[in-house]
Write a structure and sequence with these properties.
By secondary structure, this protein is an alpha+beta fold. It contains three helices and nine strands, in the order E-H-E-E-E-H-E-H-E-E-E-E. Helices cover 21% and strands 36% of the residues. It is globular.
Length: 140
């Protein structure tokens, strides 16, 4: 059996503002934007070279709206691997991505925590050569 995680749902306040942020700030591409009803869309974005996509899910109701920006409970919960940390860090910083710390070197690679437009915490990681795609990285 061959399995993979295809998408992760990310609660957003508005489809268009989330699409704009992920495409302009991080350079993601829109894989799909299909209207399902007058209020609901199936929107997937991903890094141009990535295989796992974010499904942008517009929050509906008090519980979901309260979870926008805190889906990880205040912890880093999304990990974005890069093959060139310095390039992406400089590019994103120039685009106004909000970094929550200075970049640091860890045994598992170069890393920095940033937040998306809603405050979800992410790690940008350039794994050390022996960890690139081979094993999960420690959670922050």
């Amino acid at each position: 059996m061959k399995l993979r995680i295809a998408h992760l749902a990310l609660l957003v306040r508005d489809y268009d503002e989330a699409i704009d942020w992920f495409t302009r700030q991080l350079g993601f591409v829109v894989l799909e934007d299909t209207p399902l009803s007058a209020e609901k869309r199936w929107v997937r974005v991903a890094p141009a070279s990535g295989s796992t996509a974010l499904l942008l899910a517009r929050a509906k109701g008090e519980v979901q709206e309260a979870a926008v920006g805190v889906q990880g409970g205040g912890r880093v919960w999304l990990f974005l691997e890069t093959d060139d940390f310095d390039r992406d860090y400089r590019t994103w910083k120039a685009r106004g991505v909000r970094f929550l710390e200075e970049p640091r070197s860890e045994p598992y690679g170069k890393v920095v925590v940033f937040s998306d437009l809603y405050g979800n915490r992410w790690d940008l990681i350039e794994p050390a050569p022996q960890t690139l795609g081979e094993k999960p990285l420690p959670s922050m």
